[in-house]
C-alpha cells in the first residue's frame, strides 16, 4: 500500500469513529431528554435526591440516633412508594458524630463540599448542631434541626431552621406543670451542664419563680457522669417537695434509680427529653410516678398522629416516641418543600420560607414563623404508670 493509500484509510477510519461517537451521544441524549409521552425536551433525571444527616449512632446518645433512623426510614418508605420527590427517589446519608461539638464541623465541611447533598438534618444536641451552623450558613446549605430546642439555634442565619419547639416554650410549660398543676413550691433543679441544659434550667427557674416557687437547690452534672449521689444528697438536704430534671433519658433514668439510695423520696418532674420507652426500660420501677411534658404521644387521638402510629407499629412492632416522630416529620417537611419549590439548595431555603400549612404529625397543619421554627407548638402532660407513659390531667 502506498503512503497516499495509507493516509486515506486512516482518514476514513477516523471519520467512521467520529460518526459512531456522535450517534452514541445522540442516543444517550434521547434517553435523558424525553418527556412523559416520549417526546423531546423535558429532562427526567432519576438519580436520587440526597439529604445529609449528622447525629449519634455510637456513644452515650446512640439510642437517639437509632430512633431517628426508624422515623427517617418510615418516611422515606412512604415518600418513595408514592413516586419520590419530583419523580426521583429520596435518600439520606448518616454521618455518626456521637453528638460531639468537636466532630460536627468536619462533617459539615464534608456535606457542604458534596454537591449531591441538598439539605442537612441534625445534629442531635443543640451544642453539637450550633458548632456547625455557621459552616452551613456560609455555604448556603439548609440545616434543619429536628431536636434543637436551644433558643439561639436558628439565630445563625436564614439557612438554619427547626421543626422542634423552643425551650422558651418547653421550660415554662414544665414550670407551670410543676408549680400550678402539681402545687409544688420548693424545687430542687438538676441539669445537664451544657449550654442547652443551663439555658433550659434558667428558663424553667425564671418561670417557676414568677409562679411563686422557691428554688432550694440548683446542681449541674456532666454528660459522662454516672454517680449522681453527691448532688442528690445536696438536693435531699434542701428538703424540696419536687425534684426537677433537665436531662436526657439515659442519665434521667440513672438519677431516678439513685435517688432512693440517698433517701430522696419526693415528686419528680422531668423535661420532655426523657420521653422515650428507653427511659422506662433503663429506669424500671424507679421511674414510676415521674411526670413529664411532651409534644408527641401515641395515644393522641388526632388523625395525623394515629396514621403515623399505626404505620410505625406495623413496620417496627412498637410504639414511636417523640424522637422518631420528629425525625419522620423532618423528612416529610423537606420532601413537601422540594416537591413544591425545587431540589436545589437555595430553592429549598426559599421554599421553607414560603410554604404554608405543612402536613406534620407533631403540629398538624403548620407554618414556619419569622424565627424559622414551626409556630404554635402543642404540649401534653404525662405520668409513668404501670411501666407506661399515660396522659395526666389535674
What features would you describe in this structure?
This protein has 394 residues and is of the alpha/beta class. The protein has twelve helices and 14 strands. The chain has a seven-stranded mixed β-sheet, sandwiched between helices. Strands 2-1-3-4-5 form a five-stranded parallel β-sheet, sandwiched between helices. Helix 3 (104-113) packs parallel to helix 4, helix 8 packs parallel to helix 9 and helix 11 crosses helix 12.
What keyword list fits this structure?
394 residues, alpha/beta, 7-stranded mixed β-sheet, 5-stranded parallel β-sheet, 12 helices
Rg calculated over all Cα atoms = 26 Å
* Envelope shape: globular
Please tally the helical runs, counting DSSP H or I stretches of 4 or more residues: 12
Work out the strand percent: 15-25%
Uncertain runs with pLDDT below 50, 5 residues or more? 2-9, 11-44
Kindly state the mean pLDDT as a whole number? 90
Measured as a percent range, the helix fraction is 40-55%
Number of strands: 14
Query: Could you give the order of strands across the largest sheet?
Result: 7-6-8-9-10-13-14
Instruction: Give a short account of the largest sheet.
Output: 7 strands, mixed
Structural class, by secondary structure, is alpha/beta
H-E order:
HEHEHEHEEHEHEHEHEHEHHHEEEE
Measured distance between first and last alpha carbons = 105 Å
Amino acid at each position: 500500500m502506498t503512503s497516499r493509500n495509507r493516509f486515506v484509510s486512516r482518514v476514513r477510519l477516523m471519520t467512521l469513529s467520529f460518526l459512531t461517537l456522535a450517534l452514541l451521544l445522540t442516543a444517550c441524549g434521547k434517553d435523558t431528554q424525553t418527556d412523559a409521552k416520549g417526546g423531546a425536551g423535558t429532562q427526567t433525571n432519576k438519580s436520587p435526591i440526597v439529604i445529609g444527616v449528622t447525629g449519634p449512632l455510637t456513644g452515650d446518645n446512640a439510642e437517639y440516633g437509632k430512633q431517628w433512623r426508624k422515623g427517617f426510614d418510615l418516611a422515606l418508605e412512604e415518600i418513595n412508594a408514592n413516586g419520590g420527590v419530583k419523580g426521583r427517589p429520596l435518600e439520606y446519608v448518616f454521618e455518626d458524630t456521637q453528638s460531639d461539638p468537636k466532630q460536627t464541623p468536619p462533617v459539615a465541611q464534608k456535606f457542604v463540599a458534596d454537591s449531591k447533598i441538598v439539605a442537612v438534618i441534625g445534629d442531635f444536641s443543640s451544642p453539637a448542631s450550633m458548632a456547625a451552623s455557621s459552616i452551613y450558613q456560609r455555604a448556603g446549605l439548609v440545616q434543619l434541626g429536628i431536636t434543637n430546642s436551644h433558643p439561639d439555634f436558628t439565630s445563625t442565619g436564614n439557612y438554619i431552621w427547626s421543626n422542634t419547639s423552643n425551650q422558651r416554650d418547653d421550660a415554662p410549660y414544665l414550670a407551670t406543670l410543676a408549680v400550678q398543676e402539681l402545687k409544688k413550691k420548693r424545687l430542687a433543679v438538676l441539669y445537664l451542664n451544657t449550654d442547652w441544659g443551663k439555658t433550659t434550667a434558667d428558663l424553667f427557674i425564671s418561670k417557676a419563680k414568677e409562679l411563686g416557687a422557691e428554688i432550694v437547690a440548683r446542681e449541674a452534672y456532666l454528660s459522662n457522669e454516672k454517680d449522681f449521689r453527691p448532688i442528690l444528697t445536696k438536693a435531699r438536704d434542701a428538703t424540696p417537695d419536687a425534684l426537677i430534671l433537665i436531662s436526657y433519658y439515659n442519665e434521667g433514668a440513672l438519677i431516678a434509680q439513685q435517688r432512693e439510695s440517698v433517701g430522696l423520696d419526693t415528686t419528680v418532674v422531668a423535661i420532655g427529653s426523657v420521653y422515650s420507652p428507653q427511659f422506662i426500660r433503663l429506669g424500671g420501677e424507679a421511674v414510676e410516678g415521674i411526670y413529664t411534658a411532651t409534644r408527641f404521644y401515641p395515644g393522641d387521638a388526632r388523625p395525623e398522629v394515629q396514621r403515623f402510629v399505626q404505620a410505625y407499629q406495623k413496620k417496627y412492632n412498637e410504639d414511636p416516641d417523640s424522637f422518631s416522630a420528629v425525625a419522620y416529620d423532618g423528612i416529610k417537611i423537606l420532601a413537601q418543600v422540594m416537591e413544591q419549590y425545587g431540589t436545589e439548595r437555595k430553592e429549598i431555603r426559599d421554599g421553607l420560607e414560603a410554604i404554608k400549612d405543612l402536613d406534620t404529625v407533631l403540629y398538624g397543619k403548620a407554618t414556619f414563623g419569622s424565627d424559622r421554627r414551626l409556630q404554635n407548638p402543642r404540649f401534653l402532660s404525662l405520668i409513668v404508670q404501670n411501666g407506661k407513659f399515660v396522659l395526666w390531667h389535674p
